[in-house]
Every structure is written in structure tokens, then in C-alpha cells.
Amino acid sequence: MERIGAARDLVLGYFRALKAIDEVMRMAIPSIERLAGILALVRSRRISRNGRIGTYFYTVHGAGCGFVSGNGIEVDVDFAAGSEVFDLWRLRWYGLTLPDPLDVTDEELRSAVRSLQPLLAEVRPGWFSVAS
Whole-prediction pTM value? Predict the structure, then answer.
């Protein structure tokens, strides 16, 4: 049960990191209403596919973006219908890049995600979003 608690803390930490990134991006680029707006800016060539905004390095890839903070923590997220979506792999990778890396199993993460419903919604099998 302790490992599931650690996995739950990891998921909540991922949310906090994603929210911090969203705030930094919207302060630096006021035209972004949601973090997913970064895709439109790249596609319209108003910003580069990779660069630095505030304290974060970013790399836009396919349907998402990877962010790396100044202390090396990585948050990778995809976008679907204008919302941030993530899977267990992205959560695990985030945990492995923490200053005190946390390696949890997919099953521990699944249990953590289940315990956070209705905060989370499964938008397609294995992919989650913060419920709106």
C-alpha cells in the first residue's frame, strides 16, 4: 500500500508540474489560453519547435511537448482536443527524472490513477486527463 501512496504522490506531483509549466507559458506568451496552444504557435511558425520559455526548455513532438525544468525534471504531455493527456509511460518517466528518482510499476500507477478518480478521466484506453 505504501508504494501505491508513493505512486499517487508522483501523479499529483506531475499535475503540479504541469500546472506550473502552464502558468509560465501563459505568462511568457499571453496569447496562449491553454498549454495545448503551443502546438498552434509552432505550426504557424510563431515559435520554434524547441527552445526555452521562462525556466523551461521545451521540444514539441507530434501531438505533444516535452518540458525540462532547470533542475532536470521532465514532463512530457500530449494534447487531444485542446486538453493535456498523458499515459503511464509519461508518469513513470517524470518519476525517474525527479531529484530523488521514483521508479514505480505500471500496476502501481494504475492503482494510483484509479484512486484519483473523478479528478482524472480516462479519455481513451490507457490515456488520462484531468477531468474538467
Answer: 0.91
